Amino acid sequence: MRIPNLPLEETPDGRNEDDNVEVRRWGHVRNFDFNPKEHFDIEGVKPGMDFQAASKLSGSRFVVLKGAVIRVHRALGQFMLDTHINEHQLQETWTPVLVKDEAMYGTGNLPKFAEDSYQTTNGWWLIPTAEVTLTNTVAGDILEASQLPIRMTALTQCFRSEAGSAGKDTSGMLRQHQFEKVEMVTICTPEDAVNEHNRMTRCAEVILEKLGIPYRTLALCTGDMGFGAQKTFDLEAWLPGQNKYREISSVSTCGTFQARRMNARFRPAGGAKPEFLATLNGSGLAVGRCLIAVLENGQQADGSVDLPVVLHPYLGGKTRISAAGVLE
Hints:
alpha+beta, eight-stranded mixed β-sheet, three-stranded antiparallel β-sheet
């Protein structure tokens, strides 16, 4: 229960994030004729992003979104879902955000990472990501090979204690205790896992490209990879306010690691003995971080924000946030 997965041979060796390998880069980093600001300092964003009210309600690492900003946030989540459903053929799924111990054990969140999640007084856990619920839908099952692959997506609230993150990203909404994320999960045969991993990564990349957000794709090294992963690609979006790329999606293949914990199997064609399934998961994308990227990359010298064309239909034809914080 505490021993991590074994990396694939192709996963780069390394000790930490400095040893990750850049695979590709997309988009042109914009040349600003002014000093770009971080999202929370953009004049048109300030009226719709209230950290003081959130602190009064809940403490640090929370935010209250209002007006134009929350409408763009909501539009982003709907745009992501529609793209994954209509173009990538993922099945939309709605799941609980409260789960039992067994579900957290199944995906590897317990026992090692208990401090990273929140538990209620009656024993439920608040999900850190919909990976937990989507993957565990096949726990204890024996599927037929003809049912595979199963490709799912869900937009849910996610909850993380951010244990060990004291002092990191304390300003703005980059690292929050409560956030929304569009998650992707695939259940397939072990033989198809590598191809499905590449497919899922591309699904996430397409979202950024449609939004016009420059990004880079990294292959994580063994020392920076998650507990249950065999191979991971991270997508990092360009944030001009920080003048750096920051993680916006992590896409992993777990091989049979989670399936063994969940006893999730499939019966190969011809009625052979059941074998363990392969599971994959990835962000497609983290909505709040995507909001940050949209706001920072679209900011103008007067404090207004030009919004991506693909979001205009979700905003009633509005194309920008004015310097006063109004959709126009």
